[in-house]
Amino acid sequence: xxxxxxxxxxxxASQFAFLFVRRLQVPVVITDLDQARVDKGLGYxxxxxxxxxxxxxxxSDEANRLKxxxxxxxxxxxxxxxxxxxxxxxxxxxxxxxxxxxxEQYLAEDAVLATNTSSLSVDEIGAxxxxxxxxxxxxxxxxxxxxxxxxxxxAPKTNDAALATAMEIAKKLGKNAIITKDTPGFIVxxxxxxxxxxxxxxxxxxxxxxxxxxxxxxxxLPMDPFVLLELVGLRVGAHVLETHHAAFPERFFDSPxxxxxxxxxxxxxxxAKGKTKGYDPKALAIVKKHTAPGATPFTVEQLRARxxxxxxxxxxxxxxxxxxxxxxxxxxxxxxxxGWPFIMGGATPYLDRVGxxxxxxxDTFHHPPVRGVA
Length: 374
Ligand code: 3HC
What we know:
This protein is of the alpha/beta class. It has helices spanning 11-24, 35-54, 60-69, 93-104, 122-125, 160-172, 188-204, 209-216, 225-232, 234-247, 256-264, 281-289, 300-320, 327-338, 347-353, 356-361; strands at residues 4-7, 28-31, 70-73, 84-87, 112-115, 135-139, 149-154, 176-181, 268-270, 276-279. It has 2 domains: 4-181, Rossmann fold (3-Layer(aba) Sandwich), CATH 3.40.50.720; 186-374, N-(1-d-carboxylethyl)-l-norvaline Dehydrogenase, domain 2, CATH 1.10.1040. It is built from 16 helices and 10 strands. The strands form 2 sheets. It has an 8-stranded mixed sheet with strand order 3-2-1-4-5-6-7-8, sandwiched between helices. Strands 9-10 form a two-stranded antiparallel ribbon. Helix 2 packs antiparallel against helix 3 (60-69), helix 7 packs across helix 10 (234-247) and helix 10 packs antiparallel against helix 11 (256-264). 3-hydroxybutanoyl-coenzyme A binds next to helix 7, helix 9, helix 10 and helix 14.
């Protein structure tokens, strides 16, 4: 790898730029619609570097070297010598097709393109490329520097060279790469979409937020659904739910309340130091506005059973559809990508243990079932 190109200069793109420059130690160029956005992105990257310096994780020499390796441009010709170009732009197929189209004309034949889409079809994103076979999905998890997973998405046209490059780069970034089929949400987001969709549906039914948090606690995830939504961004969360609802309307909820919360910007209220104090009162009012008269709130037990059965059903379908080849892939993805406690062994042993697998598909994921904690 000699030079990395990043399409986009927002917060996600700047997290990528920092990770790539730090781990690969090669020039990284970012771009966006105009110079002001590019400058803002460069500012974020310098801030990331300064943070690492302040934490004593890198020396000042390295901080200077990393800063010098990152440049910004509005001229796509500056991507000509990049051999890896990844996009981190708005989650809309047309926008992604356009930015790849603009840059492809300048790239060498063997350059590889990667998309960080959270749930869109990689095949569709590549539909307008001259060489769609060099496009691969390369899906990171928030916080990018911390979560040790990348889902490498093999779209129907992705060739072996692009796939091998993606696997090699993931390794150099210090991440574990799991190959997945090009289906909505890939692995982790499909499971999180089920969980978050149920959580938003529950509060839209008048279920108190605390009841939802209590219902999903036994799963052991480090963040409750609402903290997780705030982490990934309410707009991104709403988009992930919409994509799944569009693909599987009978099984996934979208959330009108979350759409409006995304416009508002917050679900949680924070103090001056950024520590969460509770739920933002206006956000609670927005959710209440979307509660249908006569809606029936769930109890902790009812919602827990819905979530567990929903997850067992979805994972069973993912295996039948060949999204991955074995339940262990899903367990590993959830442990590495969403912090499912490794001590519990992953999602499928849990669902076997609580009886959800038996209830939903009359069998268990594991034979014999994995006994253990929780
Ligand atoms: N943003 C950036 N960095 C953060 C952070 C945040 N919100 N929260 C914590 N960190 C960093 C800390 O700075 C620290 O870094 P350091 O080691 O360099 O100092 C490191 O994470 C560990 O911090 P803590 O010791 O405070 O860690 P915690 O025990 O509180 O764990 C966590 C933090 C790792 C974020 C944990 O809560 C977790 O695993 N949460 C689940 C996150 C998750 O599910 N992510 C996937 C979401 S789906 C997604 O992103 C896909 C997309 O397409 C939607």
